[in-house]
Amino acid sequence: MYDYYTAAGYPMANVPLSYSSFNKRPFGRCALASQYKEGDLVQFMSAWQEEFNLERVLPTWVNGDPDSKHEG
User: Fold this and answer.
1) Model confidence, pTM
2) Is residue 32 included in any domain, yes or no?
3) Does residue 61 fall inside a structural domain?
4) Which of 23, 28, 32, 39 could join 16 in a cystine, given CB atoms 3.0 to 4.6 angstroms apart?
């Protein structure tokens, strides 16, 4: 649905809500505005950040970080 909205030239932004307890991936809400109202979205996102100020919590791995190199 959002692809059609942005293809038509309307601005869209995503704001964070929280993180999934299952896999720690972030999820959020999509904010849409009328054509040529990018400034309204910037003001909305700024107010959202000021009000909620969500900090990212990195996931903890059960068997260690899969990207780290194990010596053995």
Assistant:
1) 0.62
2) yes
3) no
4) 28
- Tokens encoding 50: 């000021």
Domain count along the chain: 1
Pair 18, 54: CB distance under 8 Å:
yes
Structural domain of 30 = 2-52
Question: pLDDT tens digits, residue range 19-66?
Answer: 787 777 888 888 989 989 999 999 999 998 888 876 766 666 666 666
**Is there a domain that residue 31 lies in?**
yes
Nearest-angstrom CA–CA distance, 27 and 2: 16
Looking at residue 72, its pLDDT comes to: 46
Q: How many CB atoms lie within 10 A of CB 49?
A: 12
Distance (Å, whole) CA 8 – CA 58 = 36
